[in-house]
Design a protein that fits this description.
The structure holds 2 protein chains of 2 kinds.
Chain A (H helix, E strand, L loop, with lengths): L3 E4 L2 E5 L4 E7 L6 E6 L6 E6 L5 E4 L2 E5 L5 E6 L8 E8 L8 E3 L3 E6 L1
Parallel strand pairs in A: 2-11
Antiparallel strand pairs in A: 1-3, 3-8, 4-5, 4-9, 6-7, 7-8, 9-10, 9-11
Chain B lengths: L3 E3 L3 E4 L5 E7 L5 E8 L3 E10 L2 E4 L6 E7 L2 E6 L8 E8 L12 E2 L3 E5 L1
Parallel strand pairs in B: 2-11
Antiparallel strand pairs in B: 1-3, 3-8, 4-5, 4-9, 5-6, 7-8, 9-10, 9-11
The chains are: A mainly beta, B mainly beta.
Chain lengths: 113, 117
C-alpha cells in the first residue's frame, strides 16, 4: 500500500539554526502538503504544492515539490522557539480526487533558546 | 477563517462505555474526516464523509462508527470503548468539488484527547 516516510523523526536544534526535513513516497503524487501541529492543538496547513519542481515560501518556511514527484522538502530558516511542534507531510490517498490524504509519521522539532 | 470545533478537548471514559465525539465546521465543506493520532504513527484515517449520510471507511474503522445527519456536523462513535482506543482524535474538513486542489486542503479541529480506563 501507499507509504510516506518522513525524516528525521525528531530534531533538537539551537535557536537561529536552519532546519531541513523531507518526505518520500512509494508512489507518485500530484500534490504535497505540509502541516504543523503545535503542542496540544490540531495540525495547521503551512504550504501546499501542486507542480513538480515548485518551490513555495511562507515567511521563513520554504517547501519544494521534488522533480521525481515522489518526494518533498521543508526548510525552516533561522529557527525560533515558536517553531516547536510536529511537522507532517501529506499527499493524496489513492488515485481518485476524493480529498483523502495519507500522512507521514511526523518530524518533532524542539528548539533550544 | 475556517473554523472546526470539537465538543471536548479532554475526555475520560470507562471500558465498555459508548462514547460520542462531535465535530462541527462552519465553512460549508462537503468533506469531513475523523483521524486518530498516536505517537510515531502519524495521523490515521478512521472514517471519511463526502456528503450528508454518506461515509467511507478509512484505514482503521474497527470499533468505530460515524454519523453525518447535517452537512456541518460529523460524529464519531465508539460503540464499546476499550483501553486501546485511548488516543488523540482529530476532526478535519475540506471542500470537495470546487477545485481538486482545495479538496486536499484540510482544516483541523483542536483535537479530543480520549482516555479509556
Amino acid at each position: 500500500g501507499q507509504q510516506l516516510n518522513q525524516s528525521p523523526q525528531s530534531m533538537f536544534i539551537q535557536e537561529g539554526e536552519d532546519v531541513s526535513m523531507n518526505c518520500t513516497s512509494s508512489s507518485i503524487f500530484n500534490t504535497w502538503l505540509w502541516y504543523k501541529q503545535d503542542p496540544g492543538e490540531g495540525p495547521v496547513l503551512l504550504i501546499a504544492l501542486y507542480k513538480a519542481g515548485e518551490l513555495t515560501s511562507n515567511g521563513r518556511l520554504t517547501a519544494q515539490f521534488g522533480i521525481t514527484r515522489k518526494d518533498s522538502f521543508l526548510n525552516i530558516s533561522a529557527s525560533i522557539p515558536s517553531d516547536v511542534g510536529i511537522y507532517f507531510c501529506a499527499g493524496p490517498f489513492g488515485s481518485s480526487n476524493t480529498g483523502k490524504l495519507i500522512f507521514g509519521q511526523g518530524t518533532t522539532l524542539q528548539v533550544k533558546p | 477563517d475556517v473554523k472546526v470545533t470539537q465538543s471536548s478537548r479532554y475526555l475520560v471514559k470507562r471500558t465498555g462505555e459508548k462514547v460520542f465525539l462531535e465535530c462541527v465546521q462552519d465553512m460549508d465543506h462537503e468533506n469531513m474526516f475523523w483521524y486518530r493520532q498516536d505517537p510515531g504513527l502519524g495521523l490515521r484515517l478512521i472514517y471519511f464523509s463526502y456528503d450528508v449520510k454518506m461515509k467511507e471507511k478509512g484505514d482503521i474503522p474497527e470499533g468505530y462508527s460515524v454519523s453525518r445527519e447535517k452537512k456541518e456536523r460529523f460524529s464519531l462513535i465508539l460503540e464499546s470503548a476499550s483501553t486501546n482506543q485511548t488516543s488523540m482524535y482529530l476532526c478535519a474538513s475540506s471542500f470537495r468539488f470546487q477545485d481538486y486542489r482545495t479538496a486536499y486542503e484540510q482544516y483541523f479541529g483542536p483535537g479530543t484527547r480520549l482516555t479509556v480506563t
